[in-house]
Amino acid sequence: MEPKDKISSGTQAKRKLFGQILIEQGLITEEQVREALETQRQKGGLLGDILVSFKHVTNEQILQALSNYLGIEIVNIEGKEILREVIEQIPAAIAQLYRIIPISLKDGVLAIVQEDALNFEARDDLRLIVKHNIKSVLCHKDVIATALEKYYPKKHESIKQLLLEFKADEPYIEAKKGDYIDIDKLKELADTAPVKKWVGLMFLDAVLENASDIHFEASEDKYRVRYRIDGVLYEKISPPIKTGILIVSRIKVISGMDISERRLPQDGRIQLNVASATIDVRVSTLPTKNGESVVMRLLNKSAVSLDLNTLGFRNEELKLIYQLLSKPNGIILVTGPTGCGKTTTLYSVLNYLNDVETKIITTEDPVEYDIDGLIQVQVNPSIGVDFANCLRTILRQDPDIILVGEIRDEETARVAIQASLTGHLVFSTLHTSDSPTALTRLTDMGIKPYLIAATLEAVISQRLVRKICSSCKEEYKPSDRFLKDLNLTSGDIKGNKIFRGRGCSNCHNTGYRGRIGIYEILVINDEIRKLIIEQVNTSAIRTAAKRSGMTTLRDSGLIALYNGLTTIEEVTRETISK
Fold first, then answer.
1. For position 156, what pLDDT does the model report?
2. DSSP H or E segment with residue 575
3. In the chain, pLDDT over 90 holds for what percent of residues?
4. Residue 304 has pLDDT above 60, yes or no
5. 308-463+517-552 belongs to which homologous superfamily?
6. Residue 115: enclosing H or E segment and its boundaries?
7. How confident is the model over 123-134, as a mean pLDDT?
8. How far is 308 from 301, CA to CA, in rounded Å?
9. Rounded Cα distance, 407 and 413, in Å
10. What distance lies between CA 477 and its chain's CA centroid?
C-alpha cells in the first residue's frame, strides 16, 4: 500500500509509482519515464500530461492502466448533470484544492472522480471532512476540470468561508514562551484533518490570488496571515490563536524541518500540486518573543516564462540586450532591491544562451529554477562553499558562461573579474539603487578602477511596477499634486493619456493586476571606461550615460505610464528623479 504522504516527499513518491505502473503494463520504457521526470523537475506539471505531450502514451491508455492497477472503473460524466445535493457534499474550496468532483451519493457512499487518482492522502482527508465512505472512480482529467468550473465557480468566496469557519475549539496546544511541549502530541495534532485542511486552503487561496509570499506571523494576541501580491502585503484571514502553533508545526513537518526545534531559525522546501499548478515553496522560520513566524516564498513553475520577450523590455532595449549577450567575455550585472525580478531576468538570459555548444555553470543561494543543460551549484557557507570558493572551482570546470548569484564582497568580485579576464562571460547581481551606483559599489569593495573598466560590459538596473487591471482601466486627469511627485506639470503630460484602475472583482479592488519590469541599461562604452579610471562621481557617470542614450529608471517608468501600463503612484513609488 502507498505510504501516507507529507506533501513534499509523498508527491514525488507517487510520481515514481505512476511511471512504474505504466512500465509494468508495457506502455512506456524506463528511459521515457526518466525523460519525462526530468522535464517535470524543470517545469512542473503532472507526469501523465508530460508523457502524453511527448506522444509516448494516450490519455485513454493512462486511464486504463490506472483502472487495472487500482481496480476501479472508468466513467464518463461529460454532458451528464450531477444532482445539487451531491455537489453540496463537498465544499467548493475542498473540491478545488484536491481537484475532486462528487458524482453520486448512495447508501452512505459518496462516489468521486479525482484528477490525481494516486493522491491517496486527499481521499483520507476527504473521509474526515465529508463524514461519508468514499468510493473512487476514474474519469478523463479534462472532463473533471470542466466540471469543476461548472459546479464550483466561486472558489475564492468558498475558501474564505471555510477559513472563517475554522473554530477555536479545533485541536490546539497552549504554549507560552519557555513552556515544555509534548512533541509527540504536537505531531499528532498537527496531522489532524482540520489543521491539514487549513494549511491546504491557505496555500490554495494564495496560489489563486497570485501571491509571491505568505507571511504567517506570531504576535501577542493572534497569528497574522499576510500575502504579498504584486509586491504589496495584504492582510488575510487569521486562524484562532490557539491553533497557530499547530499550523506552524504542520508547515515545518511538510517542509522537512525539525518540529521540536523552536529556538533556532530553520529553512525548508515543499513541492505542492495545487489547482493544477506545480508550486515550489521555500520556507523560513524565525523564532520571536511571541512564537515562531514563518515566511513562505511561492514559485509557480507553470506560470514562470523564462523568455526575455515577456519581461517588459522595449524593442530598443531588447536589441541592446542581444548585442551585449553576443560578447565573448566580460561582466554583466543586474542590480536592484530584493524582489525586483533580478533572478528571473538572469535566468531568462541563461535560457536564451543555453545550447549544446555552450557550457554554463551557476553558483546560487539558493537554486531557484532548474534548467536542463545548466550545471547549477548551491552555495553552503557552513561547510566553506561560499560564492568565491565555488567560483574558483567552477573556473577549473572549463565553463563558457558563469552566473554568480550575488557579488557580496571583495573576494567574490575579484574572482569574478579574474574569470572575465580569462575569457569567460560572467553574470551576477548587486544591491544598488541604480546602474551608475554599481560602479562606486565595486570601488568601495576595494576593486581597482582599471579592473572595473577593463571587465565590466553593462549594468542593468530594474524595478517591477504594478500593471493597471485591464478589466477596470479608465482614463483620468491627474491632479497637480500627483504630477508634482514626478516633478511634472500638466504641460509636461500634454498629448499623453493617463490611466488608473477603478478596482473590480478581477483585481480584488486594487486597480492592479500583475507586474511589469522597467529598466535602466548602462552600457560601458569608451567614455564611461575613461570616467571610471578617473574615479569621477556617480552623477558625472550618469550624465555621460544619459548623453550616450541611457534611459533612466524614472524615464522608463514614465514611458510605461504614457503607454497606459502603470500609474503615477507606481512610478513615484519605484523610482527617484535624477
1. 56
2. none
3. 49
4. yes
5. P-loop containing nucleotide triphosphate hydrolases (3.40.50.300)
6. none
7. 76
8. 16
9. 6
10. 36
**Mean pLDDT of the residues in the chain:** 86
Give strand pairing partners of 74.
138
d(CA 307, CA 31): 29
Query: What SS3 class is residue 291?
Result: strand
Is it the case that residue 258 has pLDDT exceeding 80?
A: yes
Q: How far apart are CA 430 and CA 375, in angstroms?
A: 22
| Grid cell at residue 483 | 504630477
Q: How many CB atoms lie within 10 A of CB 49?
A: 15
212: three-class secondary structure by DSSP: strand
Residue 80 dihedral angles phi and psi, to the nearest 5°: -100, 140
Dist CA 11 CA 32 (whole Å): 20
CB contact at 8 A, 427 and 452:
no
CATH topology match: 18-150 vs 159-168+181-300: no
CATH 3.40.350.10 fits 18-150, yes or no: no
DSSP string across 187-208? HHHHTSHHHHHHHHHHHHHHHH
Q: How far apart are CA 20 and CA 26, in angstroms?
A: 10
Report whether 290 contacts 268 (CB < 8 A).
no
User: Do 441 and 527 touch, CB atoms closer than 8 A?
Assistant: no
Residues whose CB falls within 8 Å of the CB of residue 560, separated by 6 or more in sequence, listed in order: 312, 465, 516, 518, 566, 571
Q: Where are the domains of the chain?
A: 18-150, 159-168+181-300, 308-463+517-552
Q: In terms of DSSP H, where are the helices of 89-168?
A: 92-98, 120-130, 141-151, 155-164
Per DSSP, helices labelled H in 290-385 are: 315-325, 342-353
- What the block records as the C-alpha cell of 525 is 562604452
- Name which CATH class applies to 159-168+181-300: alpha beta
Q: What percent of the chain has pLDDT over 70?
A: 88
Residues 6+ apart with CB under 8 A from 70: 117, 136, 138
Q: What is the pLDDT, as a whole number, of residue 578?
A: 62
User: Is there a contact between 462 and 313 (Cβ–Cβ < 8 Å)?
Assistant: no
pLDDT confidence bin for 505, thresholds 50/70/90: confident
- The set of residues, in sequence order, having a beta carbon less than 8 Å from that of 440 and lying 6+ positions away, is 537, 538
Instruction: Please give the residue that has the higher pLDDT: either 483 or 301.
Output: 483
d(CA 99, CA 276): 8
Separation between Cα atoms, residue 494 and residue 476, nearest integer Å: 13
For residues 529 and 457, give the distance between their C-alpha atoms in angstroms, rounded to a whole number.
10
Structure confidence at residue 189 (pLDDT): 61
- Which grid coordinates belong to 136? 473512487
Instruction: Report CA-CA distances (Å) from 179 to 31, 182, 285.
Output: 53, 10, 19
The identity of residue 35, as a single letter, is E
User: Which among 238, 187, 239, 232 is positioned nearest to 213, based on CA atoms?
Assistant: 232
Among 14-18, 237-241, 428-432, the range scoring the smallest mean pLDDT is 14-18
Rounded Cα–Cα distance for residues 239 and 468 (Å) = 32
Cα-Cα-Cα-Cα dihedral of 560, 566, 571, 572, to 10°? 150
Q: How far apart are CA 305 and CA 116, in angstroms?
A: 25
